[in-house]
Each structure stands twice: as C-alpha cells, then as structure tokens.
Design a protein that fits this description.
Arc Repressor Mutant, subunit A; Dna Ligase, domain 1; 3-stranded mixed sheet; two-stranded antiparallel sheet
Amino acid sequence: MVDAIPGPRLAHVVGCGPLKALKNRLRAHGINPSAQRLAVASYVLKTPDHPSADGVWEEALRVLPTISRATVYNTLNLFVKKGLIREVTLQPGRVRFDANTIAHHHLVDARTGRIFDVPFDSVAVTHDDLDGFDVHGYEVVLRGRKRERR
C-alpha cells in the first residue's frame, strides 16, 4: 500500500520514505496521523531547537498553508499528552517544546536565547538532605554565554 501524501508541500518536507516513518511514529504513540498533525510533526520532531508554539505554527504554515494556530496548539498539547514531545518552561511565561524525551537538562545562552540540551549525567545534583521529601525527578536549567574564541 502506498501512503497518500496530504499535499505537495508536505511531500517535499518529509519525502515519501520519511512520511511513512513519521506516520508510524505518530501511530506508535496512539495518534492518528492527519495532514495537520503530520505538518506539525514534520518540524517539531526534527528540529534541534526548542520552538515555541508560534514558531511551530510558522513552520507548519510552510507545509500546510491552511493550518490554523489553534490546530497547532491543540496538536502540540496532544503530542505532549501522548509523550511524543515534552513541554518545557525555561523562562517565566515562555513555553517551548522539546522532541528529546530522554532525561536531560538545558542550557540557555544569555546572549542569543538559544537553548541547548545538556546530558543528564553531566550535572551532579544532591538531594538527600531535603528532609520530608522523596524526590522523584529533577531538571536543571543552566544559564550562560558561549565563550569567545581567542
């Protein structure tokens, strides 16, 4: 069976082979792969950036010009609920989305605002002395600036 490609722009972005893989990835998380969901997934699951919902919407418009902002927001919320992506708040009031669902930390570049993934084991945190609490998880947000080359 050949996958039906929802439109020429989506075919261009994800290609025929990757489209099938993308559909399978959505299905594996219990998500029906509609054209709108594929347009969102084709960007949010492949970008190393941590985009905002509006950033995802702008990219999805390139693939599917009729997609609404509400559809993108609802799709992102569904992806989070199903465990396909994570919602991260690294700055007050600024929600970003992360396709890396493996435990890790983040570093925010103070100069550019760019967000980088930091391997979980590269940051040591002790929490044994938190009397009265059983800690079940933690995430560290580092802030800094990339060193200038000399």
